[in-house]
Amino acid sequence: MRASAARADPIVALADLDEVRLSQVLGRLGPAAVPTTDAVLEALAAACLDVLVVREMAALGRHPAAERPLADEVDGFLAQVWPEDGQCHEIAEKDLRWRYLRDVARYKHPDETFVWDALFACCTAAQLPCDRDEVARCRLAQRPGAARLARSLRGVLPRTLAAGVTATLEASPIKESHSVPFEAAVAAAGGGDPERPGPELRRYSFFATTDPRFPNEAFRHADPAIENAVFGAPLGSLVGPVDTADGVHVLLVVARLPARHGLEDPASRAEVRRRVCAERARSARQAYLEKLLATARIEWRDQILETTFGADVVARLRAAAPGRAPARAP
Question: Which sequence spans correspond to the domains of the chain?
Answer without folding.
Answer: 3-81+297-320, 111-258
